[in-house]
C-alpha cells in the first residue's frame, strides 16, 4: 500500500525591484557603480541607450 504524496504549491518568486532610469541617473548622463571592489560606469547616450563599462 502506498501513501499518497502531498504536493505543495510552488513558491511564487518575489518580483524583481525596478527603478526608473531617470530616478537612477537624476538628470546626469553618467554615474559610477561600485561592485565587489570594481568601479563600473553607466552612461546614457544621446539616443537614450544605456552603456555599462568597466
Short overview:
The protein is mainly beta. 9% of the residues lie in helices and 31% in strands.
Write the layout of secondary structure elements.
Blueprint: H1 21-25, E1 30-35, E2 38-44, E3 50-53
Largest sheet: 3 strands, antiparallel
If strands are numbered along the chain, what order do they take across the biggest sheet? 1-2-3
Shape: elongated
Strand elements, count? 3
Residue share in β-strands? 25-35%
Distance between the termini: 62 Å
Low-confidence segments: none
Helix content: under 10%
Question: Compute the gyration radius: what is it?
Answer: 21 Å
Q: Structural class per helix/strand content?
A: mainly beta
- The overall pLDDT, averaged over residues, is 92
Q: In DSSP terms, counting alpha (H) and pi (I) runs of 4 or more, how many helices? A: 1
Order of helices and strands: HEEE
Task: Summarize the structure in words.
The structure is a single chain. With 54 residues, the protein is mainly β. The protein is 9% helix and 31% strand. The chain contains one helix and three strands. It has one helix at residues 21-25, and strands at residues 30-35, 38-44, 50-53. The protein has a three-stranded antiparallel β-sheet with strand order 1-2-3, with no helix packed on it. A hairpin with a 2-residue loop joins strand 1 and strand 2. The longest helix has 5 residues, at 21-25.
